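TICKET #2291
ISSUE: user wants both folds in one file
ATTACHMENT 1:
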Amino acid sequence: MFNDGHRSRSAGTLLLVEDDPDIRESVSELLEEEGYCVWQATNGREALDVLEAGCRPDVILLDLMMPVMTGWEFLSRQQALDASIPVCVISGVADRLDTRVYPGSITAVTKPAHWPRILDLIRRYCQAQPIPVEELEKRGDRHLVNSH
């Protein structure tokens, strides 16, 4: 499901956590065409296994509604493990996520997602450019960065 952690020359490395195989494959292909290295996980447990194996993506793209371990469960565990990895939640229920309870950088975008906006977020996260909260709010994204 994921590579061995070696980064090829890419725009960045992403961990895509999505249970729907059609969505997962199409998003992965889109991101790979943009030059990103994409690790895939079908649920939160697989994604946590990737992180616990020592792989560190530049950003995590996360669905919330998944079997085995939901996105909410994964997010709580991931934040305890390494809150420095930015997470972009892309879900039909993203509006139910209270980003204020997490110490890390969380962006929540409701499906259907506007992919140019998602790509812009990914580019900025991979380049470590902070995204002003006002800009995200203006675009309809919710974002919180704590200094913990």
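ATTACHMENT 2:
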Amino acid sequence: NLMSDQITPQPKSTKAKRPVRLFILVSEGTISRAEYFAAILRTYHSGATVIGTHTVGAMGEMVRLPLYGDLSMSFTCGEVTFDGVSYFKKGIAPDILVHLQPADLLTGTDRILQTAIDLAHGSQH
């Protein structure tokens, strides 16, 4: 077979793999599906660190109720858990809490992002 003659298996790397660090940035604006995503990453990625402020806990099971024409209404009606942990009405508490300052809005400073960048470069918080 022409294809199998052209494919040469590559030797496995003997270099030790470093664990992947993952920073999940959250705030009170992280709601619903974004909270699901953060909770899944925190639960199933051992190198995940949640950074920011507490989320609101708007992450129950969504139900869509069709109304008239193209109109519909969505609401939360059930609780979803990740490894037995429910964040519904509780939110996600960050591993590293970042206190936001009103002046940050005026200066365009993103303290949550800067904290993650500092950690990625080896700074301790």
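RESOLUTION: both attachments delivered.
EXTRA DETAIL ON ATTACHMENT 2: The first helix runs from residue 2 to 6.
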